[in-house]
Design brief:
- The protein has one domain.
- Helix content is 94%, strand content 0%.
- It is built from 4 helices and no strands.
- The N and C termini lie far apart (109 Å).
């Protein structure tokens, strides 16, 4: 082989080696860029998911708060109506005798219940209801069975 051919071969080998090195370097840069882009996308997705989670929690809290306000307003309104009905029964019912006593008891119970509904919140009512059931388990059980029977009969119709 001639020296010229050897030099050409060496140059070609050297050029090929340089090309391989540059290709490896470019591949390394491309890999780094891909890793960086993937990391940025992952971070952005995590930030977006976190923001969405916070907004959902805020919205759920606002809805729960609003529902509580509406329920409180409704029970207060019902309580006011019961108290007013008790007053009307007391005014228009008989004042003496056995019917007078019954009228007084019904009117008093309605007024007391109305005031209770206006003043108490749901957690107080739930606690009072639980205590009532604990003090009177058998009547509570019988009442539950009766209500269940009436609901079943009403739903069947």
């Amino acid at each position: 082989m001639s020296t010229t051919a050897k030099r050409e071969q060496e140059r070609a080998t050297e050029a090929a080696g340089t090309a391989v090195d540059k290709t490896r370097e470019a591949a390394g840069h491309a890999g780094e860029a891909a890793t960086s882009a993937a990391s940025a996308i992952g971070q952005k997705a995590a930030e977006t998911a976190s923001a969405v989670g916070h907004r959902v929690a805020e919205t759920a809290s606002a809805v729960g708060h609003r529902a509580g306000e509406m329920a409180s307003s409704a029970t207060s309104s019902v309580g006011s109506g019961m108290e007013s009905l008790g007053e009307q029964i007391r005014e228009r019912g008989p004042e003496s005798g056995m019917l007078g006593k019954a009228t007084e008891c019904v009117a008093g119970a309605l007024e007391d219940s109305g005031r209770y509904l206006q003043q108490a919140n749901f957690s107080d009512m739930a606690e009072d209801f639980t205590n009532l059931i604990r003090r009177n388990p058998l009547p509570a059980l019988l009442l539950g069975v009766g209500v269940g029977f009436l609901l079943a009969k009403a739903l069947r119709s």
